[in-house]
TrEMBL record, chain A:
PROSITE patterns: ABC_TRANSPORTER_1, ABC_TRANSPORTER_2. Belongs to the ABC transporter superfamily. Residues 7-239 form the ABC transporter domain. InterPro entries: AAA+_ATPase (IPR003593), ABC_transporter-like_ATP-bd (IPR003439), ABC_transporter-like_CS (IPR017871), Metal_Ion_Import_ABC (IPR050153), P-loop_NTPase (IPR027417). This is Metal ABC transporter ATP-binding protein. It comes from Winogradskyella immobilis. The lineage of its organism: Bacteria, Pseudomonadati, Bacteroidota, Flavobacteriia, Flavobacteriales. The keyword Transport applies. Pfam families: ABC_tran (PF00005). One of its GO terms (molecular function) is ATP binding.
UniProtKB/TrEMBL annotation, chain B:
It is a multi-pass membrane protein. This is Metal ABC transporter permease. The keyword Flavoprotein does not apply. Belongs to the ABC-3 integral membrane protein family. Keywords: Cell membrane, Membrane, Transmembrane, Transmembrane helix, Transport. The keyword DNA-binding does not apply. Pfam families: ABC-3. It is found in: Cell membrane. PANTHER family: ABC-TRANSPORTER METAL-BINDING PROTEIN, METAL TRANSPORT SYSTEM MEMBRANE PROTEIN CT_070-RELATED. Its main location: membrane. The chain crosses the membrane at residues 6-28, 37-54, 60-78, 90-107, 145-163, 175-193, 205-224, 231-250, 256-276.
Length: 245, 386
């Protein structure tokens, strides 16, 4: 039923200071899935995303987004980095951060105008952050900051969304709000790829999963491969997470 | 005012503006020390440039020296990337090495020319009007005015063209990279502008003051605003203000202009550091004191909510209760009454409806940490502003 491949990774190897953190990864992500990337700390989950997005240079391998290299497909891809990767004391407002999502479609030099502002306001509305549009970003709670990041990705109106631990440090309400938006994106035919930590919620939130620990352990539909066997292979200890019926 | 005085002030102001623009981004990128490194390590570039051109104001010299600045940044990053030392150590290794090469070159070869370490480090603004640019027999002003004017023009053009790109790559490098705005290109662009500005300004104000003019106005502005454009505007304003006031201080004291400008910059930062409305030390201390009182208030209200017995709610008992918290009971009682949260009849304190509701909401917030309910309370109470 899902035949189109949104993201294809071939023989990807990435190293920091000559120490491989990802080793010979082959991965095909079908269009329209909501996929979790799970694995222990240091498994290379963020590295995988960053390599796909051209932020890191792999030492071997190739990546394609709908059969073309990433550089040609930037407009199709949105990225939500880890919340901790930026300085929240930066002098800017919530609205302005969301506007940054529109910069990609503008290209170099051109400045955002009314059209971009309107799109940003709509995205803020979608994540329930419109009342905070003028607030300085350090004055937002952790959950609100994560919603701003999500809005910034939504405003890109992409086909594929990459998110690096969007649930880290957010409360239950925000987590549910975020996952509902992600499910809506999937319903609209988008592909969503999430680095995820909470194994308990994988079956509830996602329909596709990739197990990663430097090497790829397994990838496929949650109902087929999210089992104790793969968890044990990935985390190295005897894992028991019963899949909810 | 003589025309020389006006020229000196114009030069100082242009240098201040040219420094404040890259300086703002250096401060936000936590790279203030890089400007210090560049300002020193351009020395060998200036010396070599001087041997080639025999003119301290030659554009070739400026480009050569700026190149040394870029080499500094590259070397610092290279050493840092080995993972053996941290960035500050790498900076401390690179710039003294380059600087000392410059010192030796001067000592060995430039003894009888007008080029010495003092001139490079401290500059002398007072002499700037004497070195004039004459084209076709017409005097069109001091050379350094033209040099810094051209650099400023380029800087402003680049700022307007790439403001959005600089902003996004400063705030979120990963996003900038994924959107196709190469953080590496922007980084080296900013470093190039910083280097050229430093070299262009050293003759007028000296390499040390360049650092002050890059960092101090931006750091001062950072304390006052939460908007990048305003921060740039304020930094430029502070820079120009210090340049002009510094000139007159030097005039009155008959002292170094560069030194006086730097002193004014320092004092200006100190004033803002103390008195800035929200980030200033005094505002922070006041906020902390208010928060302590508010915590006591909340404890007090919760006590009232939990106890119906009259003896628990008697003013005397509460005095003890609050004094035990080491905050004056009076300020807590006053704060509660000011907000109509309590009523006192015959020395028995009761919660009003408002006080009751406030307490429930506040406790709820503290337990769940969800702040949707307490948005309206943020304006009145520091405690809920995160």
């Amino acid at each position: 039923m899902k035949d189109k491949i949104a993201v294809k990774v071939d023989d990807l190897t990435v190293a920091y200071n000559y120490k491989p953190v990802l080793w010979d990864i082959d991965l095909e992500i079908p269009e329209g899935v909501l996929m979790a990337i799970v694995g222990p700390n240091g498994a290379g989950k963020s590295t995988l995303i960053k390599s796909i997005l051209g932020i890191l240079d792999p030492i071997a391998g190739s990546i394609s987004i709908y059969d073309k290299p990433y550089e040609k497909q930037r407009a199709l891809v949105a990225y939500v980095p880890q919340k901790g990767s930026v300085d929240w004391d930066f002098p800017t407002t919530a609205l302005d951060v969301v506007m940054m999502g529109t910069y990609g479609s503008l290209g170099w030099i051109k400045r955002p105008g009314q059209k971009q502002k309107k799109a940003a306001l709509e995205a803020l509305e979608k994540v329930g952050m419109l009342p905070f549009k003028g607030r300085q970003i350090s004055q937002l709670s952790g959950g609100q900051q994560q919603r701003i990041f999500l809005a910034r990705a939504l405003v890109q109106n992409a086909s594929i969304y990459f998110m690096d631990e969007p649930f880290q440090g957010v409360d239950a309400t925000t987590e549910i709000a975020i996952i509902n938006i992600l499910k809506e994106l999937r319903k609209a035919g988008k592909t969503v790829i999430v680095v995820h930590h909470d194994l308990q919620t994988v079956p509830e939130y996602f329909d596709w999963v990739t197990f990663l620990n430097v090497k790829k352990i397994a990838t496929g539909p949650v109902k087929d491969i999210f089992n104790d066997d793969n968890l044990t292979k990935t985390y190295g200890i005897n894992y028991k997470v019963s899949v909810q019926e | 005012m003589s025309s020389a005085q006006i020229e000196i002030q114009i030069i100082a102001s242009l240098v201040a503006i040219a420094c404040a623009i890259p300086g703002t981004f250096l401060v936000l990128r936590k790279m203030a020390m890089i400007s210090d490194a560049i300002s020193h390590s351009i020395l060998p570039g200036i010396v070599v440039g001087f041997f080639i051109t025999h003119d301290l104001n030659s554009p070739v010299l400026i480009l050569l020296a700026a190149l040394t600045g870029i080499i500094t940044v590259v070397l610092v990053e290279y050493i840092q990337k080995t993972g053996l030392v941290k960035e500050d150590t790498a900076i401390g290794l690179v710039f003294p090495a380059l600087f000392s090469i410059g010192v030796i070159l001067i000592a060995k070869n430039a003894n009888d020319v007008h080029l010495d370490v003092d001139a490079v480090l401290l500059g002398e603004l007072a002499f700037a009007p004497f070195d004039r640019l004459v084209i076709g027999g017409t005097d069109i002003g001091p050379k350094s005015l033209w040099i810094i004017g051209c650099i400023l023009l380029v800087t402003i053009t680049l700022l307007f063209a790439f403001f959005k790109e600089l902003k996004v790559s400063t705030f979120d490098k990963g996003l900038a990279a994924s959107l196709g705005f190469s953080p590496v290109i922007l980084h080296y662009g900013l470093m190039s502008v910083s280097s050229v500005t430093t070299v262009g300004a050293f003759d007028a104000v000296g390499a040390i003051l360049v650092v002050a003019l890059m960092i101090a106005p931006a750091a001062t502005a950072y304390l006052l605003t939460t908007d990048l454009k305003k921060m740039l505007g304020l930094a430029i304003g502070f820079g120009v203000f210090s340049a002009i006031l510094g000139y007159w201080v030097a005039h009155w004291l008959d002292a170094s202009i560069a030194g006086s400008i730097t002193t004014v910059l320092g004092l200006l930062f100190l004033m803002v550091y103390l008195f800035a409305p929200s980030k200033g030390i005094i505002a922070v201390l006041y906020r902390e004191k208010q928060q302590r009182i508010e915590v006591s208030l909340l404890t007090f209200l919760l006590h009232l909510k939990n106890h119906n017995e009259e003896e628990e709610r008697h003013v005397n008992h509460l005095n003890e209760h609050i004094n035990w918290q080491k905050v004056r009971s009076k300020s807590v009682l006053e704060l509660a009454q000011k907000n109509n949260m309590i009523s006192i009849t015959e020395n028995i304190v009761s919660l009003t409806e408002k006080g009751n509701e406030f307490t429930s909401k506040a406790i709820d917030y503290i337990i769940t940490n969800e702040d949707t309910q307490i948005e309206d309370m943020k304006d009145d109470f520091f405690l809920f502003r995160g």
